């Protein structure tokens, strides 16, 4: 059996109706997992779930809409998953917000609070909702999609970078708390990826040029280039990795 086999596993992936989240859901389905597609808009979730069910067999994917800023909606996401698929074996906290671009001195309190709420506090909520069954079962994998922004400063997305640095520490703390129960918590730190979420960065010629100057591969990444790391962390292949971060950035952070 492949080290990357996910047969018999159920994975919740937030922000999975497009971009990196969708790519992760697709690749996990390829490796045999049941996947729960979740984002704010139900129609978008259903569209992706229908695609996966058509490709991999009916019952592969379930669509459950949830706004990550709502604790009740996140709890419903977990409840619906367990009702349809049973135990949750894998959680991928991918959904995030970034309503502000510019220097920290000009950010509104409401914008800063929203970034920290959705990118850190909501992840903690969701982890707290799925972890009890993982701890009881002594089996589980939690993946937080952070960013290389959490490893450096930025004059454009400083608040977002702060939230992503906090995600690294959230993973480390949870890894310490859960490790003895065989529940692992890790982060993926993508560089600039061609998604709608990051469009304001890669669509702007000046921002793109600035990023590519320090990227040895000379290009930005594609969503599917992040998905393999999530499969690794969710599967037996990553069974001894805990509290770590995998940087996938074409080499940008080494220059």
Describe this structure in words.
The chain is α/β, with parallel strands linked by helices. Helix 1 packs across helix 8. The chain starts with 9 loop residues before the first strand and ends in a 7-residue tail after the last strand. 45% of the residues lie in helices and 14% in strands. Helix 1 links the parallel strand 1 and strand 2. It has a single domain (10-254), classed as 3-Layer(aba) Sandwich (Rossmann fold), CATH 3.40.50.720. The longest helix has 29 residues, at 109-137. The radius of gyration is 17 Å and the shape is globular. The protein contains eight helices and seven strands; from the N terminus they run E-H-E-H-E-H-E-H-E-H-E-H-H-H-E.
Descriptive tags:
255 residues, globular, alpha/beta, 7 strands
Topology of helices and strands:
Layout: E1 10-14, H1 19-30, E2 34-38, H2 42-56, E3 61-63, H3 71-85, E4 90-93, H4 109-137, E5 140-145, H5 158-178, E6 183-190, H6 199-202, H7 205-213, H8 224-234, E7 245-248
Parallel strand pairs: 1-2, 1-4, 2-3, 4-5, 5-6, 6-7
Helix pairs in contact: 1-8, 3-4, 4-5
